[in-house]
């Protein structure tokens, strides 16, 4: 294992222990069993270590989704449904998730959301293009439409940024479903899966 990964694992252990918030760079280095200078070779600050840990975690989530989806031979609508299911059901480290929702980590939280968008949008764009080829969708700008589909799910419905009731979540997702059906000229009811069985708990 590389020293970089040792450092990230050390911070993750401190998160599990509940001491990451007050931990210093020296504490992280000590947990990784390396010199403080060795940590600074890879990272300029504790915040950079957390940033890299977030990126590693979400890379795992996205790549897991990509691998599972690649193994599926299904129509475009089913693939969008499966992708969202894979994304929501792939475990995100709870200690890391809690750390991201702490006020002092707001900037890293925002960066993590942007990272997810950048990684997921090309996958969704490819599925939309498949739908165009299947004549299920009419879409001249698949990349931008993918971003518009994902934006409410990643940002607007992030419980760390907004606190919505179950009813408010349902209304927003129903509106998104209608907008997508209209813009993609998809059959009525095509996107009901966006809000069926989706609760505020499933967003966490």
UniProtKB/TrEMBL annotation:
The keyword DNA-binding is assigned to this record: yes
Keyword Cytoplasm applies: no
Alphabetized InterPro entries for the sequence: Homeodomain-like_sf (IPR009057), HTH-type_Tx_Regulator (IPR050624), HTH_TetR (IPR001647), TetR/AcrR_C (IPR049149)
Pfam families per the UniProt record, alphabetical: TetR_C_39 (PF21303), TetR_N (PF00440)
Keywords tagged on the record: DNA-binding
Start and end residues of each HTH tetR-type domain: 1-61
DNA-binding segment(s): 24-43
Name of the protein in its database record: TetR/AcrR family transcriptional regulator
Naturally occurring in which organism (per UniProt): Candidatus Enterococcus murrayae
Lineage, top ranks: Bacteria, Bacillati, Bacillota, Bacilli, Lactobacillales
